[in-house]
Amino acid sequence: MYNYSIRTDLAVEAKEMIEETSRPKSIEGVEATEKEEDNVKTTTVIIKNAEGAKKMGRAEGTYITIEIPDHVHYDEDTKESVARSLAKELTSVLKIDEDKVVLVVGLGNWNVTPDSLGPKVVSKIMVTRHLKELVPDEIDEGIRPVCAISPGVLGITGMETSEIVKGIVERVKPDVLICIDALASRRLNRVNTTIQIGTSGIAPGAGVGNKRKELSEKTLGIPVIAIGVPTVVDAATMASDTIDLVIDDLIRESTKGGDFYKILKGIDREDKHKLITALLTPEVGDLIVTPKEVDDVIESISKIIANGINIALQPALELSDINRYLN
Predict the structure, then answer these.
(1) Closest Cα partner for 229 from 190, 189, 286?
(2) Three-state SS across 88-115?
(3) Terminus of the chain with fewer CB atoms < 10 Å: N or C?
(4) Is residue 175 part of a domain?
């Protein structure tokens, strides 16, 4: 079963955790494939039925994970390559005609850097719905009507994000919703280096343990595609994983079959994680950790995601034309 004590929003990590402890390795009701194109690795996890959803601890649907190269934030060509990979995967799950209205929602708190990804992406989206309505003769036929909003968070607005988004959906009547949010990872090496696309919607705030009412086709009546990047990692999970690395190294160095080896192999890692959580929480609370260069990274990733969305939603335009419009 999925290990609920370890916080992660990534389907690929949930799958890995199950495979680490289960026999056989395959998970019934879950299908996974990998590919690599233009030095960008993509993993697709499909949760096909209720049995798979129960084991994975998340809704049925398709979860696409794009791994970002380490040097992406310093290389414009690599940024564009990742953006085009994102656009290609997003197009594969969108499946809507060019005249359909798309609403892009940037979830998160723009005053908190690790949580500001959604609002920053929205600031770079090519919005065209108002132009299609007000000056239709000036707009090319191939331009899709797109609108966007950053609804803020409960602490800023006094309103649930789901209430705001539902009201907009009822008024604007978009055909599909794309929402962007910051996520949590269980591994440090995936923080700010992974983009996940999911077709089952999202619960705002889930990444930091502040789960609100979900945004999904079930609650809004239209398809909801979620795009997220893990920008934080739970401190207890980070400490637990660090100790696991030490244990694994000691196991490799120990004499196989010896007493010390047996002690190390007999450690229950889930109990260890619970113990670490119990020890840390009274001292530091529910601590969430993010890298020190998060300001620059969020700016870079927000540009990649916005470009990917713009390319997917406006296939009739070149990226250079989209950037000219935004500038």
Answers:
(1) 190
(2) HHHHHHHCCCCCCCEEEEECCCCCCHHH
(3) C
(4) yes
